[in-house]
Design goal:
Structural class: alpha/beta
Strand content: 5-15%
Radius of gyration: 34 Å
Distance between the termini: 55 Å
Strand order of the largest sheet: 1-11-3-6-2-4
Helix content: 40-55%
Number of strands: 13
Largest sheet: 6 strands, mixed
Length: about 575
Amino acid sequence: MAYYKKSIKDALEDINHGKMYLPAIQRKYVWNDSQITRLFDSIMLDYPIGTFLFWKVKKTIINEKDYSMYEFIKEYHDRDRNKNEPAPQPFIIGSEDETMWAVLDGQQRLTSLYIALQGTMSRKLPRKRWNNDDAFPKKELYFDLHSEKTDDEDITYNFKFLTTEDAEKNKDGKVWYKVKDILQYPAEKLITKVIMPLGLAEDELAIDNINLLHTRLVKDEIINYFEIKKDSIDEVLDIFVRVNSGGTVLSKSDLLFSTIVSHWDNARDEIDNLLSEINGIGKGFKFSNDFIMRTCLYLLDMPVTLKVETFKKGSVLKIKDNWAAISKAIKDTVKLLNEFGFNSENMISYVAVCPMVYYIFKGGNLNPDSKRELRKYIVIAQVKQIFGAATNSALTNIRRALKEAPTNSFNMSNLNNIRFTGDRTLRYNSDEIDSMFDTYEINQYTFMILSLLYPNLNYGEIEFHQDHMHPRTSFEEDNLKDLILPNGEVIDEDTKEDWRRRRNTLANLQILEGRRNESKNAMSLADWLKKPENKENAKYLPKGISYEIFNFEEFMDKRQELMSKELKKILL
């Protein structure tokens, strides 16, 4: 990047002559009148107004890559002209080397300067209806030439948006001058063209203010900017995300989302409504714009890299044309995740959901066998962290396999031969399954594995918890002190610590309805199993052994054996 300066007048001329535009990644104009007048006060005081970031690029590149550019707002109107209009594209090119600037940082400030110095401002008046044209009087920026610093105000130079009528009658010691008029005169003409016609030849304060206004807007190089020279807008965005720290910092995905909106007017509403609906299913999810954008590309068999070049006009219109089917497939998938017991508390990888949506979007059957295999997929993909690295490659490989597989059912065997980064696969071997029982904490992964072992519960309608069969309280010192083990020996400190670690492992966990788990609370396993319905419904319960805490070792070994056998049946 290189650092340059130019005057405000020169920057405005660049806009007027088609040399400066706004890229589609920019947000709508949001500044209010007070922010604009304070900006001009800062300019007059010679305060810094922040650095700008411009992308200098050949117009041929913009045309070839179909990057969308927008005009600056000139005649702002709260109702009728509050959005930037698309620039006339493709650009007419005088020579192969003809360049332009796209404003990456400084949009609000430059737009404010452009409206104030070239256009008009039409804000809605209070207590008037939106359909009343008179509710939006056209105003221009005026400067009180009698402005001077007082101790009572934090504004030194008084700028204000006024109608012509207001400027005429709103005197009260003020001398209102239309600011944009100053740009048409060179410094040597100010006396004859401005000061004399206003009758201010003897007014030193007004003369000083007129001269200062001209100096700041026409002569001083106030626009300090960095200039980026890159052909790829994605490289430019990476720089912008790192450099931009003013206002609301946007992520790259926010900027990409803006490019979609530039080609599809109501995209934001459609996507926001979809996110609101799917994130409200069951106990709630945290799907994002990123997920929606990537899934759209994935379903329509496009490259899944989130880059501006991916979201060209043709691609966005294809998404728009297929939106009804895309949104339905996403909603059906999230309902299925809810049925499987997933929500924002136990969902780790939202990217892993894309292949499920793809299967449903392509007309995949959701019979019981397919649901069982889809549950298996979403658990394995997250537990094995398939999407932890090289996400785009993983998605593409799975999509390729799904294309080749029949759509009448979903089967993990169609994905088992895929090799991911780090030589990972979606397959399990016997040792990997046994190692699942060595995890010493309850987390999202233990829930996922347990959901494979408890597949027939109504997760979508009833809240279920991960429950300790032997409750945590059983391992407190008062309950273990002087405990006699089956071998007749008193439990030692090493065994206590080992049991406390193992109490959170899979072999001591079950899925239990939340209401029943709360009633079980600190009840010992032996006491809880005395109720016939509890013993009858307990899964993977070893037979013919004691369920008292002193027999914890045997209970864990035999229950792990039962659970491991079932997991191997499911996963191998």
